[in-house]
Amino acid sequence: MLSVNVFSQEEIGYTASNYSGVQGLFLNPAKGVDSKTYFDFNLIGLDLFVHNNYVLYKASEFYLWKNIKTEFPKLADNTTNVYKKAQVVLNVTGPSFHISVGIHSIGLFTRVRSYTSVKLEEPIAKHIFESFKYQPQLRQEYNLNNMYVNSLTWAEYGLNYGLIIVQRGKTMMTGAFNIRYLTGINSIGADIQNLNYEVKDSTDLQIYNFTGEVKNAYPAYGAGKGWGLDVGFEYKSMLEDVSRYKPNTARGGCRKVDYKWKIGVSVLDVGNINFNTNAVLQNFVNAGTLWHKYDSTNVKGYGGVDTLINQLLNSGGTVARTVEFKSWLPMAASVQFDYNFENHFYINATATYGPRLGNNVNRGCLFAIVPRYERKRWEISVPLSLWNFQYPQFGIQVRLNNILIIGSDRIMPLIYRSNVYGTDIYFHLKFSLYRNPACGKKGRKGRHKKESECPAYK
After folding, report:
1. Number of neighbours of residue 437 by Cβ within 10 angstroms
2. CB-based contacts of 231: which residues, under 8 Å, 6+ apart?
3. d(CA 452, CA 450)
4. Average pLDDT, whole number, for the chain?
5. What's residue 365's pLDDT?
6. CA 383 – CA 11 distance, rounded (Å)
7. 414 phi and psi angles, rounded to 5 deg
8. Residue 449: per-residue pLDDT
9. Residue 3, pLDDT score
10. pTM above the 0.85 mark?
11. Residue 418 — pLDDT band, cuts 50, 70, 90?
12. CA 348 and chain centroid, separation
């Protein structure tokens, strides 16, 4: 009844970089203003993040390099937590670009995104893991509360615009926004306020009381439509006077001025998708039923799930049903701080908080410290982070000439034996121009002759 079908969280090792280009816009839209890349084009990128606190590969049985050659061990379960939580995030970034010139910046981007978030009490999680025929849980009545299963998949087409708001002495302030048109693909939601049930034997399951909300939209491109918005600001303490600074322009002398430190704030994923094609929302109050021969029930597809729920839970209690609903995006607020040691070493601190809004997916909370060594042609960072402010993880990110970026915010299982509760990996194939071509042309006329020469790899 509570199965989840899904097709990194923040790519914090890369989005903290001054060369992150398109990807930096998704953490703070203002990162694109006064960017160290004049033009950034993303061909394709993927970010996959999976984490839970219930099922795992035990450290005594899991070693990736050996398991790849032989076979993976069986999953085990952890019974130490009352609530079992999980999150699966998949982001695929398609053709996108960003350009920063003068006091303005602009970009266009395309993405397909999927978020799944789950919170279950231990008895129902154990039933899913072991099956409902698990002998130790037969003929025991359970009364469970405050659980949810949510999944949302959509495509988005976005516009970024930013500008320098303040330039005074060594102070600079920038602001920007992303406006996105959203095309819904799928939405599933079960907000379980109360579930009182008993598995009587291997064929009968008794539901005494179910109070909650269930929503579902049949998977299809265009199943819903909506809008989303991100807004961000950055305040920078610069190393030089920037009163007349015009980044990435020949008029501005083609120079780039770095900062000593900066702080950014952003609000992300404000918006929703209205699903009104093959969609249904049902509210149940004190519904109950005897599910006879649950083990032999044949359910085919999403339509079969809807039919089964109606057959079982419409026999008791009260039910309200509509054929349209809104699914909110995984909204979050974020704060970022970055410090420049002026020897190509930087350190970044980022905190992201994502509340859950009703029967909708929620973004995992994150706090990260990211030291990095940053050069024009290459970069390496080692993010140290706490997922949901309590699960420690560290990773690595490597950028090669802003053509190939590969990284993971959770690399522990690759280098030493440890309990594995999830994974994270991301990569991008892209192309960047570090200088405005107009700067090279002006240089050949004499004023910036040295700058027009082919840049050496540093």
Report:
1. 11
2. 29, 175, 176, 177, 266, 267, 270
3. 5
4. 87
5. 86
6. 9
7. -80, -20
8. 43
9. 34
10. yes
11. confident
12. 19
Report the alpha-carbon distance of residue 212 to residue 283 in Å, rounded: 6
pLDDT at residue 184 tops 60: yes
> What is the 3 state secondary structure string of the chain?
CCCCCCCCCCCHHHHCCCCCHHHHHHCCHHHHCCCCCCEEEEEEEEEEEEEECCEEECCCCCCHHHHHHCCCCCCEECCCCCEEEEEEEEEEECCEEEEEECCEEEEEEEEEEEEEEEEEEHHHHHHHHHCCCCHHHCCCEEEEEEEEEEEEEEEEEEEEEEEEEEEECCEEEEEEEEEEEEEEEEEEEEEEEEEEEEECCCCEEEEEEEEEEEEEECCCCCCEEEEEEEEEEEEEEECCCCCCCCCCCCCCCCCCCCEEEEEEEEEEEEEEEEECCCEEEEEEEEEEEEEECHHHCCCCHHHHHHHHHHHHHCCCCEEEEECCEEEECCCEEEEEEEEECCCCEEEEEEEEECCCCCCCCCCCCEEEEEEEEECCCEEEECCEEEECCCEEEECEEEEECCCEEEEECCCHHHHCCCCECEEEEEEEEEEEECCCHHHHHHHHCCCCHHHHCCCCCC
pLDDT by residue (tens digit) across 44-90? 999 998 888 899 888 777 776 666 667 777 888 888 878 899 999 99
Residue ranges per domain, the chain?
12-452
The tens digit of pLDDT for each residue in 295-310 reads 777 766 666 666 777 7
Question: Looking at residue 454, what is its pLDDT?
Answer: 46
State residue 67's pLDDT score.
65
